[in-house]
Every structure is written in structure tokens, then in C-alpha cells.
């Protein structure tokens, strides 16, 4: 027997994913403890992993919304409203709406990584975005390629008004700051290198 935490680690998913799989009937715990904790067996995992490797068709549909900061929460609400209207118009059912606050240059965003991991496991049938930079500010083409090669269609509404201009300014400032820091570090390195060379020349033995 193994706990939920150990089981999640073995499968490379989160505990919440295991809980959702139980609700969906995809992976039911073998038993529960007296305190109602889930327990799984190695044999059921071998069977489950085998089923997953057999290549079941992805079924999840995710609508992803993002803004860079808490001050832009109204934009987040607007994004979701527009995506909900799109979902209703398309007649899509059981769509998961994921909202996140984080910079478009940050590839370590928790929910962003969860979505990418789910796509990598071929669980996601479609990913819906209001605008391509809601997923990532740069490199969208690569992420789109990754999604499509894992059976996920990326649907972009191209709603420019749902891509706040102030976010672009913030991201550009982040890039400038990053390069400035690198240049400053290079100047310090060059200065120290010159000082070291002068010191070596000064203390060099005369022939």
C-alpha cells in the first residue's frame, strides 16, 4: 500500500490530480484508512500506467487566463467572461477554467507548469486562450508546437484588448533590467580582470 503523496510522486502528478481522477472514476483508491486517507497498491498502478501508455485520447479542455499583477484582476475577470462566451458559443462542455497571476516571462508559474505537464501526459484535448501572450510573452510558437505534438489543439481568440498594454511595458522593463545587470556584471568582471593583470605585471620578476 502507498499513500496519496507517494502515489502522486510515482505518477508525476499532483495530489489534487489524483483526487480529481478519483472523482472522474479513472483511478479509485484500493482502500482507505480509518482516518479516511486514500491508499493505493502497486499492482493497480502498474495496470493504470499500462492503460495510459496504451494511448487513450485526451479529453480535457482548458481555458487559461493570466494577468501579470494583482492590480490587473479586472482584466482577469474580463478574460474569463470572454472565454466563457466563446465556450458557450462553441457548445463546449466540461471546460476547466484556470486563472493565474504571474508575469508572461516567468516560465515557472505554478498553474502554467501544471497545464504544460498535463499536455505532456496527453490529457488535454484543447487549450483556449484569449490572446497568445496570455500563455507566454515570448516563445509561443514552441509551446504551440509542443501542444500539437501531444494531441492538444491551441485555440486563440486573438483578443488584443485582453492583452493589457501595461504588461508589455513591465515585461520590456524586466528584459532591460536583466541585460543591464549582466552588463554591470561584465563591467565589474572586466575591471577586476584588468586589476589582476596590472598586479601580475607589477609583480612580475625582471629578466
Compact summary:
With 207 residues, this protein is α/β, with parallel strands linked by helices. The protein is 52% helix and 15% strand. The longest helix is centred in the C-terminal third of the chain and has 38 residues, at 165-202.
Structure write-up:
Strand 4, helix 4 and strand 5 (95-101) form a beta-alpha-beta unit. The strands form two sheets. Strands 5-4-6-7 form a four-stranded parallel beta sheet, with helices on both faces. The mean pLDDT is 81. The chain has seven helices and seven strands, in the order βααββαβαβαβαβα. The protein is of the alpha/beta class and 207 residues long. The longest helix has 38 residues, at 165-202. 52% of the residues lie in helices and 15% in strands. The chain is extended and about 70 Å long.
Key traits:
alpha/beta, four-stranded parallel beta sheet, 7 helices, extended, 207 residues, three-stranded antiparallel beta sheet, single chain, 52% helix
Amino acid at each position: 500500500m502507498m499513500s496519496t503523496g507517494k502515489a502522486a510522486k510515482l505518477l508525476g502528478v499532483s495530489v489534487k490530480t489524483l483526487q480529481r481522477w478519483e472523482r472522474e472514476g479513472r483511478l479509485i483508491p484500493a482502500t482507505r484508512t480509518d482516518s479516511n486517507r486514500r491508499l493505493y497498491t502497486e499492482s493497480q498502478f502498474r495496470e493504470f500506467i499500462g492503460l495510459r501508455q496504451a494511448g487513450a485520447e485526451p479529453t480535457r479542455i482548458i481555458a487559461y487566463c493570466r494577468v501579470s499583477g494583482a492590480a490587473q484582476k479586472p482584466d482577469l475577470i474580463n478574460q474569463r467572461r470572454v472565454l466563457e462566451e466563446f465556450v458557450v458559443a462553441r457548445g463546449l462542455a466540461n471546460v476547466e477554467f484556470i486563472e493565474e497571476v504571474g508575469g508572461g516571462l516567468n516560465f515557472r508559474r505554478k498553474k502554467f507548469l501544471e497545464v504544460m505537464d498535463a499536455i505532456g501526459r496527453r490529457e488535454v484535448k484543447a487549450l483556449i486562450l484569449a490572446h497568445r501572450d496570455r500563455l507566454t510573452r515570448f516563445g509561443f510558437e514552441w509551446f504551440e508546437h509542443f501542444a500539437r505534438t501531444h494531441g492538444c489543439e491551441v485555440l486563440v481568440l486573438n483578443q488584443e484588448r485582453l492583452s493589457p498594454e501595461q504588461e508589455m511595458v513591465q515585461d520590456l522593463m524586466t528584459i532591460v533590467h536583466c541585460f543591464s545587470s549582466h552588463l554591470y556584471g561584465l563591467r565589474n568582471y572586466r575591471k577586476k580582470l584588468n586589476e589582476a593583470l596590472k598586479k601580475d605585471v607589477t609583480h612580475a620578476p625582471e629578466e
